[in-house]
Design goal:
By secondary structure, this protein is α/β, with parallel strands linked by helices. It has 14 helices and eight strands.
Length: 300
């Protein structure tokens, strides 16, 4: 199958390479010259713009878009749609907001172009060795692209989650759950590190991963991160949030589904992003006015 692939960054390059290795004819485009060069080094066909990409893929085209969520993906979809025709298929494999995916699907479907949202999981390692794919598509489209999904996914690692929007919705919830799991591992790490009875933190985590019930890919990656320096001396205590945790909590509120663990994990990330806490300052000052308690000043 001929496949156009837009976005050959860390994830996209590995995914395009898997498609090539599975026997598909892959044409790549990336806004960055470095990305195009790396794709050429992998033996992929590289073109200079989206128009050339679409021209290289005879209809009915399959164009896979693996770009950062938000404006970049919106622009890539719009540009690809401008060079496609009725019957072509656009696949958004990024971490897009499912609400954006529903809007984009309606827009391109007005031209008769099909839209699939595919939540990709597993990071760069998964992209290289076989990822998880959560697909939102009609049954017919899903079956038509099954050879593509089989080439990209780990064995048994792809599924039709439902119709349009379902793939990115399922990936959103996946990432919300990931927030909660990561927070739990982080709290466990801190408790082990704070112990005053001499815990070998790294050895304990490795034992957890070796055969305990909380072993997982995320724990494996935490161990990998701690190997060079278990005290993490050079790491700032700032944790970004990609947006998917927020969207998960928003949907929990909209659907009246309790998500306390995911919510708490998201709030912990927000707290880490503050240089100072006005909340804690106000509480310290309040204790002073209520009960005359001492208020610690800066530098003390």
């Amino acid at each position: 199958m001929k496949i156009g692939f837009i976005g050959v960054g860390k994830m996209g390059l590995e995914m395009a390479t898997r498609l090539k290795n599975a026997g598909h004819e892959v044409y790549c485009y990336d806004v960055g010259e470095q990305g195009r060069w790396r794709a050429a080094q992998r033996g992929l066909f590289v073109v200079g713009d989206v128009a050339a990409l679409c021209a290289a893929c005879m209809p009915p085209r399959v164009i896979w878009i693996q770009t950062p969520p938000g404006e970049a993906t919106g622009e890539a979809i719009a540009e690809a749609a401008a060079h496609c025709q009725a019957g072509d298929i656009l696949v958004d494999g990024g971490n897009s907001d499912f609400r954006d995916s529903l809007k984009r699907a309606r827009t391109v479907e007005e031209k008769g172009i099909h839209f699939i949202d595919a939540g990709v999981s597993g990071g760069v390692k998964g992209a290289k060795e076989g990822c998880g794919l959560l697909v939102g598509a009609s049954q017919d489209l899903f079956e038509r692209l099954t050879p593509v999904f089989e080439a990209l996914a780990a064995r048994g690692g792809y599924v039709r989650a439902g119709n349009t929007g379902a793939g990115h919705f399922a990936k959103m919830v996946h990432n919300g759950v990931e927030y909660a799991i990561m927070e739990a591992y982080g709290e466990g790490y801190e408790l082990l590190s704070a112990s005053d009875i001499g815990i070998d933190v790294l050895a304990t985590l490795k034992a957890w991963q070796g055969g305990c019930s909380i072993r997982s890919l995320l724990l494996e990656k935490m161990i990998e991160a701690l190997e060079p320096d278990v005290a993490l001396e050079g790491i700032a205590d700032f944790v970004a949030d990609s947006g998917m945790g927020r969207w998960t909590v928003e949907e929990g509120i909209r659907l009246k589904v309790p998500t306390p663990a995911i919510y708490a994990a998201l709030q912990a990330r927000f707290a880490s992003q503050q240089a100072e806490s006005p909340n804690m300052k106000s509480l310290a000052a309040l204790r002073g006015t209520i009960g005359g308690h001492p208020v610690k000043k800066k530098g003390e």
